[in-house]
Write a structure and sequence with these properties.
By secondary structure, the protein is mainly alpha-helical. It has 2 domains: 101 residues, Four Helix Bundle (Hemerythrin (Met), subunit A) (Up-down Bundle), CATH 1.20.120; 208 residues, no CATH class. The chain is built from 13 helices and no strands. It is found in: Cell membrane.
Amino acid sequence: MELILDIALLALLLVTAAAIAWTRDLFAAAMLAGIYGLLSASFFMTMGAVDVAFTEAAVGAGISPLLILMTLALCGRRQRAHPTRALAALLLVATVGALLVAATLDMPAFGAAEAPAHLHVAPHYIGESFAEIGIPNIVTSVLASYRAFDTLGEVVVIFTAGLGVLALLAGGRGEVPLPNPVAAVADAQRQLVLEVVAKILIAPILIYALYVQFHGEYGPGGGFQAGVIFAVGFILYGLVFGLDAVRRVASSGLVQMLAAVGVLIYGSVGLLGMATGRNFLDYGGLAADPVSGQHIGIIAIELGVGITVAAVMLLVFYLFSEQLLKSQRGAAAPAGKSITGRAG
């Protein structure tokens, strides 16, 4: 039965990928990308990779399609036909795919006990992580303690990506008042059903994000997933009630500051470890008992991860929304004049 389920999921993934490559309707491609992310999460679940599936569901099927749709609002829905480029892309994908298939021939069988991954550090993680770290979720032990320096690099990459988007899209000084991207611009035309549903959903979304944030030591979750879920709650609020409303709660300046604060929290915990005479990001000295110190350090750095991820997602949402407004104003401006009404 499990084999049949795996074959069905892989077949659906293949069909979805082919549909994404075939269609020139970018809106349909964005929706299919969300479906692909959900199917990938389901496939990871069948493989027992619950934390990876959780991340894929939150990012691949959650916030990524939303950001893609905002991009489409700027560049248009239809893709122009470029047969030469399409042929070149097909050849490139076919070449890379063939190389990947060839590489799998030298890999050990899936789940083989003699695979190098099962003989290197995995036995130590499985057998000793609870005694050394003190939390039942081995994935969190590995990500937040054993390889905490690598996870710090991932958080810095997310922060740097946010800075890159800010450098590319930010323009002008101050915040631009934005219209409601979902409901009509005029208050009289705002959709009552959307507002009621949003008010019902936003609070549980934020509470669930907090649960995922502080329950990652005991089950699937952690700062990355919680940050995305937390950002989705604010983005939903902005889509339904308008960006001005959500920025009264979390302004652009506050979001930019929080993106840096999360990285600072992570790095500061590592420095505290050095101050206790241990290595960077070794939390054992944060408490009298090394296991308790590990627990405290993991909670702190996961909080930093969640803050940075949520802030960067919100920052990207704000910047794309501002660009959308500017493009709408530019299209509405009379020919030969700027959007301020002065001679261009």
